[in-house]
Design goal:
There is one protein chain. By secondary structure, the protein is mainly alpha-helical. The protein has one domain (2-143). The chain contains 5 helices and no strands. It has helices at 2-29, 35-43, 46-80, 83-106, 122-143. The longest helix is centred in the middle third of the chain and has 35 residues, at 46-80. The radius of gyration is 19 Å and the shape is elongated.
Length: 145
């Protein structure tokens, strides 16, 4: 029975990680401006400037929608499970934030080859540890809390 609980926890961990990182990514990417678009807007024709403004307007609405989806997601984890599962979902979002900001600044998506170029500072090791520590914490809050 404990093996089944561990397997369910691992599957649920990956589902939480997938939802948390994607919702956070959708929200955070809307907070940063694209310097290439700003350069294009300053150097282009009026029609392109209007299209860029429309794109920015849609981006703002998408950002608001992503924020509301995050609130709904955290509420759903609390409503259907408990505050511990919600805390784990929030922790997974927080530990993803530095990597996401690094991706936005450098324009490189983190893959196995690119992961070698990520600065290995204290924040990197703390977020990696917390990411893995969330798994036993999730197990505790699913079955013992």
């Amino acid at each position: 029975m404990i093996i089944v609980h561990i397997l369910i926890t691992i599957a649920f961990y990956f589902i939480l990680m997938l939802l948390s990182t994607n919702l956070l990514g959708l929200f955070v990417r809307g907070l940063f401006t694209n310097p290439n678009l700003e350069k294009l807007e300053s150097e282009s024709h009026e029609l392109i400037k209007q299209e860029i403004k429309k794109t920015e307007r849609v981006g703002k609405w998408l950002n608001i929608t992503a924020f509301l989806a995050i609130i709904g997601y955290l509420y759903a984890t609390f409503h259907f499970w408990n505050i511990g599962v919600t805390a784990v979902a929030l922790l997974l979002m927080i530990v993803r934030l530095p990597d996401l900001i690094w991706e936005i600044k450098t324009g490189k998506k983190i893959t196995i080859g690119v992961a070698r170029s990520i600065p290995k500072n204290a924040l990197y090791f703390i977020t990696t540890f917390l990411n893995w520590a969330a798994l036993p914490v999730l197990y505790y809050f699913l079955y013992h809390f």
